[in-house]
Specification:
The complex is a heterodimer.
Chain A (H helix, E strand, L loop, with lengths): L1 H16 L1 H21 L13 E7 L4 H11 L7 E6 L2 H9 L5 E5 L23 E4 L4 H34 L5 H17 L1 H4 L19 H30 L1 H6 L5 H31 L6 H25 L3 H18 L11 H6 L4 H13 L8 H25 L5
Parallel strand pairs in A: 1-2, 1-3
Antiparallel strand pairs in A: 3-4
Chain B lengths: L2 E12 L2 E12 L3 E5 L6 H8 L7 E6 L2 E2 L4 H7 E4 L11 H11 L4 H14 L15 H13 L5 E5 L7 H16 L3 E6 L2 H7 L2 E6 L2 E6 L1 H8 L3 E7 L5 H9 L6 E5 L2 E6 L2 H15 L3 E7 L3 H9 L6
Parallel strand pairs in B: 3-8, 3-9, 6-7, 7-8
Antiparallel strand pairs in B: 1-2, 1-4, 4-5, 9-10, 11-13, 11-14, 12-13
Helix pairs in contact in B: 3-4, 8-11, 9-10
Classes of the chains: A mainly alpha, B alpha/beta.
C-alpha cells in the first residue's frame, strides 16, 4: 500500500510541476468560467442561464393554499424562470410531461388547504394529503428547480402554521381571544402567513433584489461545474497518458525491475490520477467560491460528488490509456472525448431543449451525471439528493477501471 | 568465487524473431563481467530477461539463488539496474528522484537519507541535489541514473551501455566509478559495444552476436582464440573498392584474414611487418588511396572479427 501511495503522490507532484498541465487543469477552466460569467451577466447583475422552464399546474384544491401555490408560479418574480400552464386534469398533466413538453407537473390534490387549515366549523384540519410532483427525468435540472420552488412553498406553509399556533397561544394566555375562537383565528393567521406575497417572494433568481432566505439560482453555478467536469476529463486523459509516457521514458520498465508488482504500479498510477483530479476539482471549487462568490451548495454533498466524479473520470482516463499505444494517441483520443463529453454533458448546450433520447444518451458521460448533481446541490439539495448521480459515477468508474485492467493485463503494461 | 548469476539456455522471442537464442553463462561474485557485442546483438534483451522485466521464452536464470521465472521479486531485491536510456523524473530534483527510487527498494527514514547523501557524494552532485533533473547536462543525468541503481547497495549491478551518447569526460568518470564500485565488492554485469570499455573493465567477457553467445572467457583466453596474430588496419577513403582491395590482400602470403568494412580493411597476420609492404603495394597497384595505417596487438576487436568476420561497429 505504501508503494502505491508513493507512486500516486509522485504523480500528483509531477502533475502540479508541469506548467502545460496546470494551464489545462486550472487556468483554462477558470478563465472560461470567468468569461461565461461576464457573458451571462453574473458580474453585471443581469440574469441568464436557465429560464422559462415549462411546468404544468393542476389545482384540484381550489382553496387558499392551493391558489397561493399557483400564484407563486405565476408571480412576477418567477416570470423569467418558469413558464406555468394550468390544466384541470392530472392525467393530461402527466401526459404532457411524458411527452417531454414540460419539465414537471405540480398536482395539488383536493383537500390540500383543508389538511392544514380547518374548514369553517371544523374542529381540526382534515386528513393529510400530498402534493404530487411529477418530474421529467430527461430534464433533471429544470425539474430540480420546480421541486425547490414547491418545497420552499411548503416550508413557508409550515412556518405559517407554527407561527399561527404560537400567536393564538399567546393571545389565549393574555385573554385577548376566547378559547372557542382560537382554532379559527390560528388557521387564518397561518394561511395569511403562508400565502403572503412578501414571504413567498423569497423564491427568486439570483439577481433579484428580495432574495433574503430564498434559494438563489446562479447560472454560473451551472457553468462552473460544467467547465470543471470537462477539464477533469482532460486531467484524467493526461494522467492516464503518464503511464505511457513512463513507458517510453524508461521509468516504467525501471519500476518493473524494482521490488514492485505490476498491480502495485497500476494501482499507484490510478491513485495519482485520482489525487490529481480531486485536487483539481477542489482548487477550482475553492477559487470560484472565493473569487466569484459562487455557492456550490451543501459542502458534504459537493465533496462526495467530487470524489465520485473523479472516480468516473479516472476510469475513462484508464480505458483510453489501455486502448492506446502511444502518449500521443491518448491525448488525441482524450481531447476528442473530452470535448464530446463536454458537449453531450450539457456544458455548452441547454439539455432541456434536446430530444429525450439524446438526454438519455448523455448519461454515458460523467459530465451529465456530475452536472445533475452539482446543479441539485446549488439549488439547495443535500447529500441525500445526489445519491443517484454519485452511485452512477462510482459504478461507471469501477466498470471502466475493471475493463482497463483486463486490457492492460492482457497486453502487459511494459509492452506497447 | 561463488556464482551469483547462472543463465541456462536463455531464449527470448518476439513473435517469430528470436532476440536471444539459448544463451548460457555465469557470473562470479565480485567480478566485472561484460557482454560485448554490436548494436542489436541481444545485450539489452538479455539484461531485460535477467532483471525480470521480461519472462524468458525458454530456459531460466538463477540470480543470487533465486530463479527469474520462479521468484522474480527476490531477484529484484538482489539486483540494481542502470538502464541504457535515462530513466528519471525530469521534474523532480536529484534528491527527490533518489528518495523515490530508494523507497521503491524499501529504504526509508534515516537510512534512506544517509544513503542518499552518500550516493550524491559518490556521483559528485551533492551541491546540485536540489535542482530539478531537467536542468542537468547529459553527463550529470547519467550520473543520477547510475546513482539510482546503486542506492540500495545491490549484490549485483546490471549496467546496460551506460556511456552511450555522452562526452569523453563523463564517460571517463563513469568507467572510474564502475571500477570503484567493483573494488568495494559489487559484482557488475556491464554491456557495451565499445571494445575499449570491455577491455578496460572486465574480468571476463562474453561476446554476443545475433542473440548468441559466441565466445566467453577472460580477455587472455579470448585473445588466444585469435592466436598470437597482429591486426593491421588500412583506413581508406570513401568510394574506394574496399572489397576488391581485401580480396587482393588475401592473396598475399602470410595473411590469415582480410575483411573490408566501414572504410577500413582489417588484416589478420602472424607478423604485421612481413605483410605491410606487399599489402601497400597491392593497394597502389589497384589505385586505392590509403589514408592511414594502424597496427594493433590482438584485442577483443580482433577476436570479434576473427569469430564473425565483421568489425564490432558494423
Amino acid at each position: 500500500m505504501k508503494k502505491i501511495l508513493l507512486i500516486g503522490w509522485k504523480d500528483l507532484i509531477l502533475a502540479f510541476r508541469d506548467r502545460a498541465a496546470l494551464l489545462l487543469m486550472l487556468a483554462t477552466p477558470f478563465l472560461l468560467t470567468l468569461g461565461l460569467g461576464f457573458v451571462t451577466g453574473h458580474f453585471s447583475g443581469s440574469s441568464g442561464g436557465i429560464e422559462s422552464i415549462p411546468v404544468i399546474l393542476v389545482n384540484q384544491d381550489g382553496g387558499q393554499l392551493g391558489n397561493a401555490l399557483v400564484d407563486v408560479f405565476r408571480s412576477s418574480d418567477l416570470a423569467q424562470l418558469v413558464a406555468p400552464t394550468v390544466v384541470a386534469d392530472p392525467a393530461s398533466a402527466r401526459q404532457q410531461v411524458d411527452a417531454d413538453k414540460a419539465a414537471a407537473a405540480v398536482i395539488i390534490p383536493s383537500g390540500f388547504t383543508a389538511s392544514i387549515i380547518p374548514a369553517a366549523g371544523a374542529a381540526a384540519p382534515g386528513p393529510a394529503v400530498q402534493i404530487e410532483l411529477y418530474t421529467n427525468p430527461a430534464s433533471p435540472t429544470s425539474a430540480g428547480v420546480i421541486k425547490t420552488i414547491v418545497e420552499r412553498f411548503l416550508g413557508r406553509v409550515e412556518v405559517g402554521r407554527v407561527a399561527g399556533q404560537v400567536a393564538v397561544t399567546q393571545m389565549l394566555q393574555t385573554q385577548r381571544i376566547r378559547p372557542q375562537d382560537a382554532m379559527q383565528m390560528g388557521a387564518q393567521i397561518g394561511a395569511q402567513q403562508a400565502a403572503s406575497n412578501r414571504t413567498l417572494s423569497a423564491i427568486t433568481v439570483a439577481t433579484s433584489e428580495n432574495g433574503g432566505g430564498g434559494i438563489p439560482f446562479d447560472p454560473l453555478a451551472y457553468m462552473a461545474p460544467g467547465m470543471a467536469m470537462m477539464f477533469l476529463m482532460f486531467t484524467a486523459a493526461l494522467s492516464g497518458r503518464s503511464l505511457l509516457v513512463e513507458r517510453s521514458q524508461g521509468t516504467l520498465p525501471r519500476l518493473l525491475v524494482s521490488p514492485v508488482t505490476s498491480a502495485q504500479v497500476l494501482a499507484g498510477k490510478t491513485t495519482g490520477a485520482y489525487l490529481t483530479g480531486v485536487a483539481q476539482m477542489l482548487i477550482l471549487i475553492a477559487a470560484s467560491t472565493l473569487l466569484f462568490g459562487l455557492r456550490w451548495g451543501d459542502w458534504l454533498g459537493v465533496l462526495v460528488l467530487v470524489l465520485a466524479a473523479v472516480v468516473a473520470a479516472t476510469g475513462w482516463g484508464m480505458i483510453i490509456t489501455a486502448l492506446a499505444r502511444t502518449p500521443g494517441q491518448v491525448m488525441s483520443v482524450g481531447s476528442a472525448i473530452t470535448l464530446l463529453f463536454g458537449i453531450l454533458g450539457g456544458t455548452f448546450i441547454n439539455m432541456d431543449a434536446m430530444p429525450a433520447w439524446f438526454r438519455v444518451a448523455t448519461k454515458i458521460t460523467p459530465n451529465a451525471w456530475g452536472l445533475d448533481g452539482f446543479t441539485t446541490l446549488a439549488l439547495g439539495g443535500r447529500l441525500a439528493d445526489v445519491v443517484v448521480p454519485v452511485a452512477a459515477l462510482i459504478v461507471m468508474g469501477l466498470v471502466l477501471f475493471a475493463a482497463a485492467l483486463v486490457i492492460l493485463n492482457r497486453k502487459g503494461i511494459a509492452q506497447p | 568465487m561463488a556464482i551469483i548469476l547462472e543463465a541456462h539456455n536463455l531464449v527470448k522471442k518476439y513473435g517469430d524473431f528470436a532476440a536471444v537464442k539459448g544463451v548460457s553463462f555465469d557470473i562470479r561474485e565480485g567480478e566485472i563481467f561484460s557482454l560485448l557485442g554490436p548494436n542489436g546483438a541481444g545485450k539489452t534483451t538479455t539484461i531485460s530477461v535477467l532483471s525480470t522485466l521480461y519472462a524468458p521464452t525458454g530456459g531460466d536464470a538463477v540470480v543470487a539463488g533465486h530463479s527469474v521465472t520462479g521468484d522474480p521479486m527476490a531477484v529484484r531485491r538482489a539486483i540494481g539496474v542502470v538502464p541504457q536510456d535515462l530513466a528519471l523524473y525530469d521534474d523532480l530534483t536529484a534528491r527527490e528522484n533518489l528518495a523515490f527510487w530508494g523507497q521503491m527498494y524499501n529504504l526509508s527514514g534515516k537510512a534512506l537519507n544517509a544513503r542518499i547523501a552518500e550516493v550524491l557524494e559518490q556521483i559528485g552532485l551533492a551541491d546540485r541535489a536540489n535542482q530539478r533533473v531537467k536542468t542537468y547536462s547529459g553527463g550529470m543525468k547519467r550520473r543520477v541514473n547510475i546513482g539510482v541503481g546503486l542506492l540500495h547497495r545491490p549484490r549485483l549491478l546490471f549496467m546496460d551501455e551506460p556511456t552511450v551518447g555522452i562526452d569523453p569526460q563523463s564517460r571517463r568518470a563513469i568507467l572510474d566509478s564502475v571500477k570503484a564500485l567493483n573494488r568495494e565488492g559489487m559484482t557488475v554485469l556491464y554491456t557495451t559495444h565499445y571494445m575499449e570499455e570491455a577491455q578496460e573493465l572486465s574480468d571476463r567477457v562474453g561476446i554476443i552476436d545475433h542473440g548468441e553467445l559466441i565466445a566467453l572467457g577472460t580477455q587472455a583466453e579470448l585473445r588466444r582464440q585469435v592466436g598470437e596474430n597482429d591486426a593491421v588496419i588500412f583506413h581508406i577513403g570513401e568510394g574506394e573498392d574496399g572489397e576488391g582491395l581485401a580480396a587482393a590482400i588475401r592473396e598475399i602470403g602470410g595473411v590469415l584474414q582480410a575483411r573490408a568494412s566501414d572504410h577500413a580493411i582489417t588484416i589478420i597476420a602472424p607478423d604485421a611487418e612481413e605483410i605491410l609492404a606487399p599489402a601497400i603495394t597491392a593497394a597502389n597497384q589497384m589505385g586505392a588511396k590509403i589514408r592511414s595505417v594502424e597496427v594493433r596487438e590482438p584485442d577483443l576487436e580482433a577476436v570479434f572479427l576473427h569469430l564473425t568476420g565483421r568489425a564490432l561497429r558494423d
